[in-house]
Amino acid sequence: TKSGFWQSFIIIYQKEGLRGFWKGNLASCLRLFPYTAVHLTTYKKIVHLHMDEFGSISQWRAIFAGGLAGVAAAFVTYPLEVAETRLIIQNCRQPTYTGVAHTVSKVYRNEGLRALYRGFSLTVVGVVPFSVGCYVVYINVDKLWQEPPSRFTPLQNFINGCFAAGV
To answer: So where does this one cross the membrane (predicted)?
Structure first.
């Protein structure tokens, strides 16, 4: 709202209580695991398919794989994003939906499969640059270490991932 953060905070609390601040959080948490699993699995599969006979891949192909993996992960988990959005915007004192599964099934039953993907193209517009940016950083941070990626410690991989996610 135009009234600012604190005024919005007060309005949400007055209208919906403490629960109003956590609407859609479960859907968001549930979406995180499959999104990451699909993203990383798809990325590795695409990279493996594009490797040369020496097991190398060009930076551009790796970046392309990252963008495509982001789209695949978003596609698989988008119905959970729709559920999250609908749970957030509903009035929790008079809810239309009772939870994530109820939201997805009710939207599918009443509005069809297309409703679970309405707005997906806009998500792709955001996912592709973010995913590409993460992999550009991740690939280049790998080069800063004085050893091949196959010899990285878990801490080095964690640091690389933190830099990439910070994009």
So the answer is: 60-80, 115-138
